[in-house]
Amino acid sequence: MVDVTVRVVVADDQELVRAGLRMILNAQPDIEVVGEAADGAEAVALAHRLRPDVCLLDIRMPVLDGIEATRELAGPEVADPIPVVVITTFDLDEYVYAALRAGARGFLLKDAGPAMLAEAVHAAARGDALIAPSITVRLLETFAGSAQAAPAASPAEPLTEREQEVLAEVARGLGNGEIAAELHISLSTVKTHVASIMTKIGARNRVELAIWALGRGGTGSKVRRSN
Question: Positions modified as 4-aspartylphosphate (predicted)?
C-alpha cells in the first residue's frame, strides 16, 4: 500500500499562528505544509499555483478574508475546487454559516487540538467534512428549537433502514467512530453510508445532513450535548 502525503497550504495573518499550525501538521507522518500565506488574496494565488490537497484558512485576514478566499477556492461556482478547512478563534454562528455556504469542508476553533486539526485535514482530503463537535451540536440545537425550521425535501432515492439509523446518530452529533461503536458496524461502513446519504439528499457536510434529518423529524433522538 502506497502512503499518500496530504499537501496543505496554511493562511493566517499572524506569523506565530502559522508557525504553530505548520509545526502541528508537519509532525503528522502523512501531512506536509507546502505553502503559507499572510492574507486571503495571497492564499488564493498560492493555492492556484501549488494545487494543495487542502487549504487551512483563518477567518479574519487582510486584503481578502477567509470566507471570500474559501468562496474563490471551493465555492459552488468553482469548476475545480480545492478543499478548504476554516479555522478561527471566533466561535460565532454567523462565521460558521458563512464558511459552510462558501464551500468549506470543515470548521474548527484554534483550540481544537492537534488530533482534531489533523483529522479535519484528512477528512477534507478524502472529500469528507469535519466540524468541531461543540459547534455542530450548538447549531443543531439552535435549528431544532427554531420556529422557522422548514420540513426537509424528500431524498432523490429512499434511504435504506441502515442509512436511517446512521442518519439518526449524525443528528445526535456523533462522529463516525462513535456511530460505528453505537451501531456495531465498521468505520468504513459508516463512511460509506454517510457518503450515500449525502448524495441522496444533496448535503455538502454533516451539519446540512443533520439539519435535514431534524427537518424530517424522524431521528428519534435528541441532539447530544458536548462535554
Answer: 58
The reported pTM is 0.69
CB 30 within 8 A of CB 3: yes
For residues 125 and 210, membership in a common domain is answered with no
pLDDT digits (tens, 9 = 90+) for 97-116: 788 788 888 888 888 889 88
* Grid coordinates belonging to 47: 493555492
Same-domain status, 52 and 13 = yes
DSSP string covering 174-203: --HHHHHHHHT--HHHHHHHHHHHHHHHT-
8 Å CB contact between 171 and 221 = yes
Q: How many other CB atoms are found less than 10 A from the CB of residue 165?
A: 17
Q: Are 124 and 85 in contact (CB under 8 A)?
A: yes
Residue 145: which domain range? 139-216
